[in-house]
User: What shape does this take?
Amino acid sequence: MYELMIIGGGPAGIAAAVYAARKQLKTLLLTVDIGGQINNTWGIENYLGYQFIEGPELINKFQTQMGQFPIDQKIGEKVSQLKKIKKDFEAITEAGNEYQARVVIFTTGKNPRKLGVPGEKELTGRGVTYCAICDGPVFAGQKVAVVGGGNSALEAALDMVKIAEHVDLVSLTKLTGDPVLIGRLSGAKNLNTYIEYQTEEIKGKDLVAGVVIKDIKSGEKKTLKVTGVFIEVGLVPNSSAVKELIKLNKWGEVPVSCACETTMPGLYAAGDVTDVPEKQIIVAAGEGAKAALQANRYLQRLAA
Amino acid sequence: MAEKKVVIYSTPTCPYCKRAKDYLTQKGISYTDYDVAKDRDKAKEMIDKSKQMGVPVIIIDGEVVVGFNQAKLDSLLS
Assistant: This one.
């Protein structure tokens, strides 16, 4: 039995781990990976202490710092369900392992939203990708589509017009990204933009061969002959493991007080998975630290 | 114990690729790195061997690992 279990090893979880270890709590970090969404981030210019730092380098620094403390880490374990057993908690992972702790800090962050259209799942990794930063260069010289209308989609389109033969940008709504990015795209000669078009299907047998889109006003359908599809339509909270324990808000986030408490005593949450209004690395780190200090106070009250 | 042959297919701006390379270096494992953004032949080779187009692809003595899967890399390197 651990005193504290931290589920999710991004900046919120790692900050919580460091603070918990310094309070000498017997701590377990259960996580799919170290760094979370920072793994999809190349350049960071707003984390204090660094004018510019690459995502992987920042993760290395976090990981090195955490490694100085006696924290048990199980990397590669995905928690499928968190249960309350009397006053304690039990986490069950996809691999079938069970871990118990008196207090839990839930810091599982978010992951890319899927379109949920036919062909998407089958062709992920075969032309469908959610990480333009990672995979963009593989599609150099090809015809690609970018689905989405926010900053991530606009940045993906900007990167791809430089190296792809042609880019089709498909957005369900009018573009919602920064005007600066929309302005930069307007000069591109190898770009078609489809505004208020729904993505209906991704076609292809072993590799992507095309995308079917529909004009939502006229209902007219069109097939774009592309071999790459970059899906950048937002992020969803990884909150399914706690949905039986507490009520999530309408976006699937975990509501927390400013002390990082959820409605269940002993269960704390921090970072992007919560309803904290700003989703930033520096905010997540601060929230993680707060959650650990609060969890420590809770344990002291239990002992008293 | 014979040294393992490790190859990684990567792109310059892929954060997971950098983490995978740092991880291999930390473990003292030497590897050959192919930049599939520059080398179209190696890009095709990666797609043929891993049956998909995402980076990184890490091949350890012929075993293919797609993505920076730390647990799988640990088990193949030990």
